[in-house]
């Protein structure tokens, strides 16, 4: 059996298996045994957890916490509201923009991230949707304005090679499609998934390119195996971007944030987005003030390191993504000139050109 399948088969999703890897705290055990929430991860990702520290950034993303019972700021029925699901469409199609959609093809994940904005659907199972691939394909075929499809889940890379090949092939038969994207945490939580079989499926040249965005939130998640998986994807002509989530106590300090984005570039992953942690129910404990992400980009990245390391900070809302980048650089403006400030607080002047 291929290694990635063994990893999934031996998923760390029982207390006994977990106890063979880390020293589980009474608080963690209580959350696992009383919350009734889906949890689990691959043995590979679990091996990156600190054995003793419950504040380990990977452990906090993997293990349920009693804090998930608190919901002061989360929005009930969040996903229905966020993905405009009152509109008549197949369950598998989420739409916020005219020319692109998210196509949800599975509810299964490798790692059931505690901060997931799709928690109601993927983790808690409060929301039941019908993930009918054929229905989704038919809808995309009929909507000629759609030029870009994001295949998402769950994690679409838990599907078999055959299923992935089928979805790509069917989408590529649709003339109005210009690009296909995958949203998958596989390069981070299951790098073994990038097999030569999958490479063969992905590397076929076609006018419709494939892009991949993954999610990595802490430098500890990046290993030699991550680097190898990403390199294999690049060899197939596929660029890999990162969509980090801003998580309190995990990546909201300057040093970690900078190291994360530098390390992503070291393994050839291009930082793409930094998402504000969305107001899905039960994840208040991961959320920072909204300004935090812009402050981190200002204080850790912009001017402080390679420009390619800079993600776009956004809030993903029901009306689309709203950028929230730092806004410190125009100090003054008059008819003749601007006064501009750099990352060190030093100012300079720049001519103001009339329209
Ligand atoms: S992999 Fe994505 S969809 Fe799955 S639990 Fe994590 S954030 Fe949610």
Which H/E pattern describes the elements?
A: HHHHHHEEHHEHEHHEHEHEHEEEEE
Major sheet: arrangement of strands = 1-2-3-4-5-6-7-8-9
The biggest sheet, with number of strands, parallel, antiparallel or mixed sense and barrel status, is: 9 strands, mixed
Using only C-alpha atoms, the radius of gyration works out to 21 Å
**Shape summary:** globular
Bound molecules: iron/sulfur cluster
How widely separated are the two ends?
A: 65 Å
Percentage beta strand: 15-25%
CATH superfamily of the largest domain: Aldolase class I
How much helicity do the residues have? 25-40%
What is the annotated CATH architecture of the largest domain? Alpha-Beta Barrel
Mean pLDDT: 95
Number of helices: 14
Any idea of the CATH topology of the largest domain? TIM Barrel
Low-confidence stretches: none
Strands, total number: 12
- Domain unit count: 2
Q: Structural class of the secondary structure composition?
A: alpha/beta
Q: What is the C-level CATH assignment of the largest domain?
A: Alpha Beta
Any descriptors?
single chain, 355 residues, alpha/beta, TIM Barrel, three-stranded antiparallel beta sheet, 12 strands, binds iron/sulfur cluster
Q: What does this protein look like?
A:
The structure is a single chain. This protein has 355 residues and is α/β, with parallel strands linked by helices. The protein is 30% helix and 17% strand. The chain is built from 14 helices and twelve strands. The chain has helices at 3-9, 15-19, 26-34, 43-46, 57-62, 78-82, 119-122, 133-142, 161-172, 186-189, 196-202, 224-235, 254-266, 292-301; strands at residues 93-95, 100-104, 148-152, 179-183, 210-214, 240-245, 270-275, 312-317, 320-323, 330-333, 337-341, 347-351. The strands form two sheets. Strands 1-2-3-4-5-6-7-8-9 form a nine-stranded mixed sheet. A three-stranded antiparallel sheet has the order 10-11-12, with no helix packed on it. Helix 13 (254-266) packs across helix 14 (292-301). The longest helix has 13 residues, at 254-266. It is globular, with a radius of gyration of 21 Å. Bound molecules: iron/sulfur cluster. Residues 109, 111-113, 116, 118, 122-123, 153-155, 185 line the site of iron/sulfur cluster.
